[in-house]
Structure formats: structure tokens, C-alpha cells
UniProtKB/TrEMBL annotation:
Main location: nucleus
Species annotation: Lupinus angustifolius (Narrow-leaved blue lupine)
PANTHER family xrefs: PSEUDOURIDYLATE SYNTHASE (PTHR11142), PSEUDOURIDYLATE SYNTHASE 1 HOMOLOG (PTHR11142:SF4)
Name listed for the protein in its UniProt record: Pseudouridine synthase I TruA alpha/beta domain-containing protein
Residues noted as binding substrate in the record, renumbered to the chain: Y171
Assigned protein family: Belongs to the tRNA pseudouridine synthase TruA family.
């Protein structure tokens, strides 16, 4: 009989060990924030292993003074902001040797394409770059001219594109207060005096034709268009008609004040011919601007006591408000036809409520916000607005110029007063606010203001003091150079609709 206390040992098959349970929680997704450094801040790890850097998709915030540059966009053979920036990125180690000069390889994009001489305070570009080790911004600035300043950069999504994700852009145009005075800077002597140099008289004489393109000779005239001879100046009509009847090359743009002696077109217009209008009408031999009258009174040639007060501010803002909304801006650019969908643009706001004093000269700060702008669009909007403010044209002309079936020659304000103030990424910021930093100029506001005052504002004021750029332009802002400023009734507009050749100003 077996002992009941005896224990029976039952062997069971061997079971696999239970899986190990990690005591650590998975790391939360790191917020991609990097304005001066990337995620990897060192060159080696604790064990001494060398870090292999990765390309980071970033947005770079920077400013520049456009003087001496042929615009933002890279152009072979021309000195551009983009060209200098690309070279600085390469010299700073952000772009490898095999990608140098090939921006598509590092996903390059710009938020705005500024024109020749135009500056920027809040420009943004994006791409994939090597931003390690720390000090990327300092390395960039050390390889750039002082007139280009990198503020910082921020990590962005892999699909980010500085152009496509930019919702709107704000530009500022600084116009001297005297330019809005209908009784200021009308005759050549006043322009010469305001420039502070007798040598400016030659420039003043040359400016009498500046900005005007003769039908059939200048502008984007195609060779298959039938061109009619136009009596431009009665005193030299024979020479000019010879030029008009000559063969016109496709896409050739020639400004009258730049034509040399081989064309038989005089650069300096004699006093006796100064007053001959474009349509061949007769006027007296004295300067045409001295004889024009505003509200029944002769224009004054001496310095006026004009000030940008409440009344003037209200009127100028009313003029600028005509541009707000969705319109066809084919008359406010070059090489864009009225039928082209690209001519349709949306202006969010246009305001000129504040003034700034720079180097003893007072300027009106004109801020325009829009989704996007075409070549010369802002300068032409300003040019026509100033013409209206100076009583050179009626307010109704702006409404007519925004019509699709009307072709009007619009004056172009000088480029020196224009700069890109800021680019906005509202939709992007809203969508990625939980994982990426906000794309804005808030963090760089102080640096941007210092750069603006030191380089951009001082350049605008000194250029006007030295060269009288705006003063000379105002001298050319007359009915002879821009006959469409005479248009005051619907009949004249209808006549313009039937014109055979469209001419735009540079």
C-alpha cells in the first residue's frame, strides 16, 4: 500500500518565457522647433561616435536692401539676391558640392519675387539644408553682404513650399509728402533746386520723355502687328516717323531717354518743343506744366506749405481704396493681356494713414496687402494714384483702368520707395500649430526694424536728397507723356477700346 503522504511529481511540457515588458513609456513626438539649431546639437555622441547630419526642411527669414541688385530671382549674368544667397548657403555647408547651383535638388522656393532695386524686410525662402552644427545663421551672415541679413530659420513640414503656402504679402511704398502736393515740383527749375545740384538739369530735361513708350517703336510690340505712324513731337516728327516705319523686332523694349544718336531720336527735348502734346495739338512754347491749371488756378512753381493733414489723408486713402477687391489689373503690368487669368488679382487692403520722418524728409507710408502681385503692379498703382492726387487725372480713371476691355497707359512710380514688408502663412500655421513653430516675423521684429531704418529707409531718403528721383519722375508725370490722363468721359474711353495696338509703359 502506497503512503498517502507520498507526492506525485507530474512532468509538464516546457513553456516559452513570457515576453519582456518595457518599463519605459514611448517618447512623445517632439515638437519640431528650430530657429538657430537643429535636433542634433553636437558633433559626437557620449560614446564618441560621430553624428551623421541630416538635411532639414526649413524656412529662412531674411531682409535685404535691393540697391545694386537686379531683383530677387536668380538670373544668369545678373547680380541678384537669390544668387548671392545660394552661394552663401554653399559656403556655409548647407548645400553640398554636387547640388551647388541646382536649386531643384534641395527643394528651393521663394515667397516673393521682388523687382530690380526693390528691397525686403520679411522675405522667406525654403529648402532642404544641412543646418548642423550650431551657428548656421552666423555662418550664413558671414558669407553675405551687410545689405543682406539673415534673421533666423524654422523647421517646417516636408511638403512646405515658401511660395505655395504664402497666403498674402504686404508691401510698403514710401512716397515723399511733397509728391502728393498738386502745386509742388512742377517746373524744371524746381526739380533742379530740390536735387541740390545744377547737374540735375540735364536729368530733368531727359525725364520729359521718361516712362513713355511710343506706339510701334517701344513696348511689347509683335512683328506681325500693323503699326501706324504717330506724330509724337511736331518739331522732330520726320525723324520719329522714320523710326516708326522701320522694322520692329519682337519683344524689344526701348525707353526714349535711353535711345542713342544712331536712332535719330533726341534725348534732350528743347524748350520750344517741350510743350508739344502727343496727339499733335498746339500749346505755347513755355513749359507745359507751368501752364496747366488746377481748380482754375495756376500751379505754383515755388515751394508750397503742403502738409499731409486729415483732409489730404482722407482723400488719398479714398483714391487707394479703388484698388481694393478683385479686379483685372492688366493695365498695371507688362506682358500680361486682359484675357489672361493671371491679370485677375485680389487686393485685401491699401492704406496710407501714417507718415515717417527720415533724414529730415517726410514720407507717407503706403501699405498694400494682397494675395500676390504682378511685375510693376504696385508701382503702377502708386503711379496712377499719385497722378490723381496731384489732379493730373480724375478719380474715375482708376475705375476705367481696372476694366478688362480698356487699355490705358499707366505711369510707373520709381522702384526706390518700394519694399516687401512681410509674408503671411496663416493657413499653414493653423494646420500645423500642434507640431511646428508659427511662421511669422514676430521673433525678428526688433532686428527687422533696425535693418529697415539702417539700410532701406536711409537709402530711400538719401537717394531722394541726392538724385531727386521722385522729383524728376513728377516732372514727367504730365499729359504729354501720358495722354490717357486726359481721359475724363466715356466717349474717350470707347475710342480707346477700338485701338489697334496696346502700349504699356515700363
Amino acid at each position: 500500500m502506497e503512503n498517502s503522504d507520498t507526492k506525485l511529481t507530474i512532468s509538464s511540457p516546457t513553456l516559452p518565457p513570457p515576453p519582456r515588458v518595457s518599463a519605459e513609456e514611448p517618447e512623445a513626438k517632439k515638437l519640431k522647433m528650430s530657429t538657430t539649431t537643429s535636433d542634433d546639437e553636437g558633433c559626437t555622441t557620449v560614446t564618441g561616435r560621430k553624428i551623421r547630419y541630416k538635411r532639414r526642411k526649413i524656412a529662412i527669414f531674411f531682409a535685404y536692401c535691393g540697391v545694386g541688385y537686379q531683383g530677387m530671382q536668380k538670373n544668369p549674368g545678373a547680380k541678384t539676391i537669390e544668387g548671392d544667397l545660394e552661394e552663401a548657403l554653399y559656403a556655409s555647408g548647407a548645400v553640398p558640392e554636387h547640388d551647388r547651383g541646382i536649386p531643384n535638388r534641395y527643394d528651393w522656393a521663394r515667397s516673393a519675387r521682388t523687382d530690380k532695386g526693390v528691397s525686403a524686410v520679411g522675405q522667406v525662402v525654403s529648402g532642404r539644408f544641412y543646418v548642423d552644427p550650431p551657428g548656421f545663421v552666423d555662418r550664413l551672415n558671414s558669407n553675405l553682404s551687410p545689405q543682406i541679413r539673415i534673421f533666423g530659420y524654422k523647421r517646417v513640414t516636408g511638403s512646405y513650399n515658401a511660395k505655395k503656402f504664402c497666403d498674402r504679402r504686404r508691401y510698403v511704398y514710401l512716397i515723399p509728402v511733397f509728391a502728393l502736393d498738386p502745386c509742388c515740383q512742377q517746373d524744371r527749375e524746381s526739380v533742379m533746386a530740390s536735387s541740390g545740384s545744377e547737374s540735375e538739369l540735364v536729368k530733368c530735361l531727359e525725364s520729359s520723355e521718361r516712362g513713355h513708350k511710343v506706339i510701334g517703336l517701344v513696348g511689347n510690340v509683335k512683328s506681325d502687328l500693323k503699326v501706324e505712324a504717330v506724330d509724337v513731337e511736331a518739331a522732330i516728327s520726320s525723324n520719329r516717323n522714320d523710326a516708326l516705319n522701320s522694322e520692329v523686332t519682337e519683344d524689344v523694349e526701348v525707353l526714349v531717354d535711353n535711345v542713342n544718336s544712331k536712332t535719330d531720336i533726341e534725348t534732350v527735348i528743347p524748350d520750344q518743343d517741350e510743350g508739344t502734346p502727343l496727339n499733335g495739338g498746339s500749346v505755347n512754347t513755355s513749359t507745359i506744366l507751368e501752364e496747366e491749371k488746377v481748380n482754375g488756378e495756376e500751379r505754383a512753381t515755388k515751394e508750397s506749405k503742403f502738409s499731409y493733414g486729415e483732409k489730404e489723408r482722407e482723400r488719398f486713402n479714398r483714391i487707394l481704396k479703388y484698388y481694393v477687391g478683385t479686379h483685372n489689373f492688366h493695365n498695371f503690368t507688362t506682358r500680361t493681356k486682359a484675357e489672361d487669368p493671371a491679370a485677375i488679382r485680389y487686393i485685401i487692403s491699401f492704406d496710407a494713414s501714417t507718415t515717417v520722418l527720415v533724414d529730415g524728409m517726410e514720407f507717407v507710408k503706403c501699405e498694400v496687402v494682397g494675395q500676390s502681385f504682378m511685375l510693376h503692379q504696385i508701382r503702377k498703382m502708386m503711379g496712377l494714384a499719385v497722378a490723381v492726387m496731384r489732379n493730373c487725372a480724375p478719380e474715375s480713371l482708376i475705375t476705367n483702368a481696372l476694366q478688362k476691355d480698356v487699355n490705358i497707359h499707366v505711369p510707373t512710380a520709381p522702384e526706390v520707395g518700394l519694399y516687401l514688408d512681410e509674408c503671411f502663412f496663416t493657413s499653414y500655421n493653423q494646420k500645423w500649430k500642434d507640431s511646428h513653430e508659427e511662421l511669422s516675423m514676430k521673433e525678428y521684429a526688433k532686428e527687422a526694424e533696425e535693418f529697415k531704418m539702417k539700410y532701406i529707409y536711409s537709402h530711400i531718403a538719401s537717394t531722394e536728397h541726392k538724385d531727386g528721383t521722385v522729383a524728376l519722375w513728377l516732372h514727367s508725370l504730365n499729359h504729354r507723356n501720358y495722354p490717357d490722363l486726359h481721359v475724363v468721359n466715356e466717349e474717350a474711353i470707347n475710342d480707346n477700346k477700338t485701338g489697334q495696338v496696346e502700349v504699356v509703359t515700363e
